[in-house]
C-alpha cells in the first residue's frame, strides 16, 4: 500500500496552491460574490497555465492525466476560496461528458478552446418536473431530414448566462420505457449554428451560495440543431450521463474537501490568535477539542476522495461494476461532513464568523449546494443501498474495502 502522490501529482498540487494564493485575492472574491460575477479573467489564466482539461486528450491541449490530478487542483482552488474554486471548476467540468463520448471532430471544436480557458461549458439535464428522477425527459428531440428539432424547458443550468455550449439530455423516443430513448446533444450558444427556431436563456436570481456562477432556465422552441451535434450513441443518453457522473461526482466531492480544509485552516489560525480571558481560545478545551475533531474528520474526507479518484483512474477489474458504491460515498459523505466542519469553524470565529468578511459563512453557503447537485445525498444513499442489496458478500472481504 502506497499513500504517496507521484512527483508529477505533487508538482500539480503545489502549482495549483500557488496559483490560487496569488490570484484568488480576497477583494476580488468579495467583488465577484457581491456582484454575482463569474471571474472569467481568472478562469482564462487557469486555462493558460494548464489547470483546465488535465484529463483531456493531448491532441486538444489536455494533459492526458486523470481524475486524481483534477481532484488535487480542485482541492487547492477551493481551499483558497470556495466561490472562486467552485465557479472555475464548474466552468470546465460539464465538458467531461464530451471528453468521454465526443468524436475527434467534437473534441477539436469544443474542447480545444475550453482547455485554453476561452470557452465555458454547461450541462442541462434538470427540468421543472424531472430533478432527481431523470428516467424520463419532457424536452423532446425529433429527427427532421437535415437536423434535430428540440422543444422543452430546462432549469438550474449552471453557467447558463455565459456558457459557450450546453450538453442537453432530451427524449428522442417518446414511447420508450423509463430510462430509455433519451439522447445527449450539444447546443451551441452561437445562434448562427442553429438551423431554425430559438433558445431563450433566463437567469434565476438570488441563490443561497455559488454566487459567482449564473443559474439559468433554458427554453427551446423548435430549436433545430445540426446532426453533427449529437453526442454519443442516440437513445443512450441517460447511460452517457451516468458514466459522466461516475467521474464528476468525485471531483464535486473534492470541492467540499477543499472548502472545509480552507475553513479549518482559518479557524485554527483564529483560535491560536484570538484571546479571551487572557488566553488564546485554542487553550479552552471546548475549542481545542473541536479543532481536533475537525482535523480528524477532514483527514477521513481527504483519503476517501483520493481513493475514489484512484478507483476511477485505475478501475480494478474486480470492482469495476461497483465504482458507484464509492463515488456515491464521496458525493454524499464529503459535503455532509464538510458542512459540519465549516459550521464548527463558524463557532470558533464567534460573532465574526457570521459576517461575509471572515469568509467562513460564505464557505458554508457555497458548500451547501454540493449536497444537492449531480444527485442529492438521498439519491447517493439510494445508489449505495441498490448495490449493497445485490453485492456478493465475498466482495466485502476483498482488499479493496
Ligand atoms: C445551484 C444549482 C446548480 C445546479 N446546476 C445544475 C446543472 O448545471 N445542470 C443540471 O442539469 N442541473 C443542475 N442543478 C439541479 C440539481 O441537480 C437538482 O436540483 C437536484 O438533482 C435535485 O432535483 P430537484 O431540485 O428537482 O429536487 P427533487 O428531485 O424534487 O427532490 C426534492 C427532495 O426529495 C428527495 N428525493 C427525491 N427523490 C428521492 C428518492 N427516490 N429517494 C429519497 N429522496 C428523494 C431529494 O433528495 C430532495 O431532498 C442545479 C441545482 C442548483 C440548486
Q: What is the ordering of alpha helices and beta strands?
A: HHHHHHHEEEEEEEEHEEHHHHH
Question: What is the radius of gyration computed over CA atoms, rounded to a whole number of angstroms?
Answer: 21 Å
Q: What does the overall shape look like?
A: globular
CATH topology category name of the largest domain: Butyryl-CoA Dehydrogenase, subunit A, domain 3
Give your account of this protein's structure.
The longest helix has 37 residues, at 237-273. The protein has three domains: 7-119, Butyryl-Coa Dehydrogenase, subunit A, domain 1 (Orthogonal Bundle), CATH 1.10.540.10; 122-231, Butyryl-CoA Dehydrogenase, subunit A, domain 2 (Beta Barrel); 237-396, Butyryl-CoA Dehydrogenase, subunit A, domain 3, CATH 1.20.140.10. The protein contains 13 helices and ten strands. The mean pLDDT is 96. Helix 4 (67-80) packs across helix 8 (237-273), helix 9 (285-314) runs antiparallel to helix 10 (323-349) and helix 10 (323-349) runs antiparallel to helix 11. The chain is α+β, with helices and mostly antiparallel strands and 401 residues long. Helix content is 50%, strand content 15%. Bound molecules: flavin-adenine dinucleotide (FAD). Flavin-adenine dinucleotide (FAD) binds next to strand 1, strand 3 and helix 12.
Amino acid at each position: 500500500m502506497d499513500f504517496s502522490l507521484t512527483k508529477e501529482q505533487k508538482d500539480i498540487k503545489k502549482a495549483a496552491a500557488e496559483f490560487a494564493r496569488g490570484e484568488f485575492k480576497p477583494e476580488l472574491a468579495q467583488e465577484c460574490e457581491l456582484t454575482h460575477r463569474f471571474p472569467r479573467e481568472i478562469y482564462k489564466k487557469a486555462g493558460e497555465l494548464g489547470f483546465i482539461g488535465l484529463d483531456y486528450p493531448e491532441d486538444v491541449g489536455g494533459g492526458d492525466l486523470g481524475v486524481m490530478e483534477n481532484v488535487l487542483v480542485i482541492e487547492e482552488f477551493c481551499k483558497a476560496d470556495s466561490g472562486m474554486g467552485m465557479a472555475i471548476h464548474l466552468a470546465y467540468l460539464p465538458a467531461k461528458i464530451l471528453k468521454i463520448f465526443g468524436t475527434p471532430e467534437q473534441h477539436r471544436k469544443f474542447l480545444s478552446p475550453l482547455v485554453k480557458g476561452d470557452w465555458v461549458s454547461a450541462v442541462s439535464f434538470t427540468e421543472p418536473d424531472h430533478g432527481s428522477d431523470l428516467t424520463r425527459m419532457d424536452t423532446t428531440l425529433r429527427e427532421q431530414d437535415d437536423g434535430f428539432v428540440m422543444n422543452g424547458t430546462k432549469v438550474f443550468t449552471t453557467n447558463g448566462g455565459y456558457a459557450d455550449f450546453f450538453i442537453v439530455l432530451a427524449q428522442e423516443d417518446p414511447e420508450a420505457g423509463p430510462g430509455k430513448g433519451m439522447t445527449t446533444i450539444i447546443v451551441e450558444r452561437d445562434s448562427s449554428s442553429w438551423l431554425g427556431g430559438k433558445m431563450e436563456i433566463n437567469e434565476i436570481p438570488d441563490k443561497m451560495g455559488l454566487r459567482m456562477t449564473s443559474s439559468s432556465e433554458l427554453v427551446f422552441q423548435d430549436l433545430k440543431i445540426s446532426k453533427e451535434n449529437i453526442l454519443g450513441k442516440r437513445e443512450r443518453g441517460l447511460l452517457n450521463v451516468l458514466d459522466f457522473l461516475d467521474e464528476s461526482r468525485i471531483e464535486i466531492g473534492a470541492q467540499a474537501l477543499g472548502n472545509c480544509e480552507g475553513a479549518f485552516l482559518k479557524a485554527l489560525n483564529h483560535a491560536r490568535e484570538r484571546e479571551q480571558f487572557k488566553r488564546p481560545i485554542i487553550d479552552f478545551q471546548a475549542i481545542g477539542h473541536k479543532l481536533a475533531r475537525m482535523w480528524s474528520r477532514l483527514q477521513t474526507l481527504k483519503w476517501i476522495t483520493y481513493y475514489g479518484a484512484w478507483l476511477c483512474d485505475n478501475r480494478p477489474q474486480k470492482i469495476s461494476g461497483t465504482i458507484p458504491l464509492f463515488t456515491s460515498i464521496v458525493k454524499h459523505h464529503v459535503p455532509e461532513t464538510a458542512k459540519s466542519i465549516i459550521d464548527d469553524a463558524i463557532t470558533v470565529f464567534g460573532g465574526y464568523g457570521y459576517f461575509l468578511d471572515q469568509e467562513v459563512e460564505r464557505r458554508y453557503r457555497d458548500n451547501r449546494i454540493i449536497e444537492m447537485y449531480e444527485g442529492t445525498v438521498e439519491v447517493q444513499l439510494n445508489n449505495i443501498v441498490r448495490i449493497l442489496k445485490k453485492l456478493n458478500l465475498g466482495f466485502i472481504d476483498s482488499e479493496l474495502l
